[in-house]
Amino acid sequence: MSETSSSFRQQILETKLPFEQKDQQQDFQEIDQVIKKQFEEQFKMVSQQLENTKDMLIQGQQKVQYDSVWTLVVLDTEENSLYTVKRFYIAEEKKEREKIISQQMLNLAKKEGQSLKDCYDPKSNLKTIIQYYDEFLMYPNYYIIMENCPYNLKQFMDNPNCQLEPGFKNYQLISFAHRIISALNQISNQNNKQTNSKKYTLKNRQIESILVDNLNQIKLCDFQSVEDFINEISHKPEEQNFYYPPECGRSDTSKDCLESLKADSWTFGIYFYLLAGGSEADCYQIRNSGYKKLYALDDNLNSILSKILCLNWQQRLSTKDIQAEFENLLKQYEQIKDQFADQVYQRFEYYKTNNKQLAYRYITICTQILPDDEKYIYQQGFIQDDLKLYEEAIQSFEKCIKLSKQKGKNDKIDNYYYNLAIAQKNQKLLDEAINSYLSAIKIDSKKAIYHYKLGIAYVENGDLQKGIKSFTTCQELDKEKKYHCHYNIGLAHSEKGEWDKAIKEFSLHIKDIAADSEKHECYYNMGNACYEKRQYEKAIQNYREAIQRYQDPKYYYNLGMALMLNKVIFEAISEFENCRYRLQDKNTLHPVYEQLAICYKKDKQFHKAIELYKLCIELDKNEYSYLIDLGVVYEENQDYAEAIKTYGLYLDKYPQDKSIQRKQKNAENKLNKIKRCFFW
After folding, report:
1. Burial (Cβ within 10 Å: 0-12, 13-18, ≥19) of residue 30
2. Which one of 35, 84, 370, 596 has the fewest CB atoms closer than 10 angstroms to its CB?
3. pLDDT band at 613 (very low <50, low <70, confident <90, very high)
4. Which of the given ranges, 51-55, 61-65, 275-279, has the highest pLDDT on average?
């Protein structure tokens, strides 16, 4: 999603927010245009998700000062996308439990947003700083929207189901370390260039504050100004936090130490130590008494780490020295990259069927080692699609196409277009998917599967005639009848209301299928076509054929409808009860209850009909027509008092409905007539 199209502040909610003083409200409006106009529907969904969904994925459950990092689904106007969100609680309680916006907390939140904007460099090839998108206020919280990162680094490394084998885990560890230290040096370089602007350093010095994106690459997202860092350390010594070097907070600490950001070197060393298997207890011991050898690491890495976690800040390696050390380590892999990538790929092949998440970790290492290898990128796209990482899969297949064109190879490019189309369709990008299928067909028009998938995309996109044409072409090419063309042509004719043509195609499909167990959907849809033609006996026959092969609740429901319209009420009740018994989601039962109530009403079993309509009302309180139906049953059961009461409940919602007013009046007249008869 582009930065320009991702703005969450297209139109903003007009609301009165409690401020400490009137001039603060004016000041806030000038700082950020947060309270102007009514939200668009998209933003309402975002705010509802933020405020009401309490079971969102929270990154590490961490709360540092006033913020925590969340992942949530944001429904964009153009696509469904995931973003990472930082939330800042900006309310404070005054007298009599009145909550107002704290200007101090609001400023802290705005500082966070500004630091992300300043630190992110769109021109950098590193892409290790998380991308900022937008920020907004929704009282009592302030939100910052960033690119999606589904894990923090600790979650990623500690996942018991995705542990790499030792030799490969060592490479991932070094690779992550190199990206972290490179990002810190990127910030340092920006600091050196900005003589008059703010300089930045790490803010939340915890391993949970480093995120991992869907390409299994790390992203830094917590920064603060060096000035704020020095002030915080001066006033609030972090003696109990092992992420801070031992000199932080000491009265004799040289300001040069902090300004040269040797504190970042120490923090990086702790990150690496924990990622390599060190414990927090060991980290406290290092801070107090010096480096302790970690047996999970070789002598070379232990030697480097001892120089990073040096108690004397003047002897500690700088971030630039650390980067150079890790670049040398990566060069050792560079010398054997083809052989090493092949070894990693073998592990991917081993795990790709039974553990896709772990397999994905291996294939991403392959693409990191050899970023322009079509084979690895293609397999990465495949497993990304399997893991429903459709945006990433699209990027992988597009890169395959680009590389293939650059190399002048066309032997696989149609397959790349075909798999790109599948990912685009999964991402609901139907127009783009259709164009990709057409590109594949342009290269190789003899592959039936391309036409078949194109037909499905056309039908889903509403272009039924083109879909039928594509399925027909597939039929001509598909001599072995591997694909369900007749079935899909039948569905397309059904969508067009061409019931006779649909029945013909469904009948041909049933003849083509060898496996009897695969015919149930075809019988069901043929039953629907007969139902629409009011050929209820044929519909009943087809629904029974479907149920014989597979007991789907909707098959019983439609069979019940056909039996009811064919006036076989007793059997209709039995089939609706079968549907009721098999429905797992009890919240979807109200249509079944409604049809059962109609059947019992027709069968003069009014008490059962009344109970079922009450259940309908309980399950769907917004469907007021059930009150009318219930009132009618009460009348037929001569319970006029309850009928009057039920009609009254409906008229409370729709007081101008004259037809129900007349029904209520008729029930009152019938009740009065009974009373008069009783009196005489």
Report:
1. exposed
2. 35
3. very high
4. 275-279
Q: What residues form DSSP beta bridges with 69?
A: 86
- Structure-model confidence comparison of residues 15 and 33, the more confident one: 33
Note whether 50 and 138 are within 8 A (CB): yes
> Mean pLDDT of all residues in the chain?
84
Distance CA 378, CA 363 (A): 10
Token digits for 657? 């409905």
Q: Examine residue 160 and say whether the peptide bond preceding it is cis (omega within 30 degrees of 0).
A: no
| Structure letter (DSSP) for residue 92 | E
SS3 619: helix
Q: Quick check: 223 pLDDT over 50?
A: yes
Residue 82, beta-bridge partner list: 73
> In terms of CATH, what superfamily is 153-335?
Transferase(Phosphotransferase) domain 1 (1.10.510.10)
pLDDT confidence bin for 251, thresholds 50/70/90? low
> Which DSSP symbol is given to 479?
T
Q: What is the pTM of this model?
A: 0.80
Q: Is the dihedral of CA 91, 94, 99, 101 positive or negative?
A: negative
Instruction: Determine how many CB atoms are found less than 10 A away from the CB of residue 485.
Output: 27
Could you tell me the residue ranges of all domains in the chain? 22-148, 153-335, 338-444
Write out the two tokens for 272. 């690496």
Record the tokens describing residue 117, joined without a space. 């904007």
Extract the tokens encoding 330.
Answer: 């990566």
Give the 3-state secondary structure percentages of the chain, helix then strand then coil, rounded to 5.
60, 10, 30
DSSP 97: G
pLDDT in tens, 496-507: 999 999 999 999
Looking at the domain that runs over 338-444, which CATH code has it been given?
Answer: 1.25.40.10
Whether the pLDDT of residue 546 is over 90: the answer is yes
